[in-house]
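ENTRY TYPE: paired fold submission
RECORD: A
CONTENT: sequence, then C-alpha cells
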Amino acid sequence: MLIVAFLMFLMVIWIKVPDLVRERMWGELAAFAGILLLAMVLTVAKILRLPVPNPEHALRAVFEPVTDFIFTKVLH
C-alpha cells in the first residue's frame, strides 16, 4: 500500500511540477511542494497506523480566544 501511495504522489508531481517550472511560478511551486509534503507525511502515517493529530484541536486553540473576545467584549 505504501508503494501505491508513493506512485500516486509521483504521478501528481510528474503532472504538475513541469508546468510550474516552465511558467516560472516559484511561489506556487513552493506552496505545492509544502502541501504535497504534508499530504505525504499524513498518508504514510495513516498507512503505518501511526497516531495522526486531529487538526480541530489546533483550530480550537487559535479561534476559541478570538470568539470569546468577540462575544464577551465586542457584542456584549
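RECORD: B
CONTENT: sequence, then C-alpha cells
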Amino acid sequence: MPHSQYDIIIIGTGAGGGTVAHQLAPTGKRILILERVDMLLGLKVRGF
C-alpha cells in the first residue's frame, strides 16, 4: 500500500466534523475523514 500523507485528519462527521470538512475542502489541503459507522454526514454510504 502506498504511503499517503494528509494535511488534516477529521475524526467523525457529526455536525462539527462535517462542517469543518466542508469549510476546508476549497483550501486544496489533503483531508482524510474517518468515521466508525457507514454513515457520512447523515447519509448511508457503501464501502469503496
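NOTES ON RECORD B: The longest strand covers residues 8-11. The chain has one domain: 8-44.
STATUS: closed
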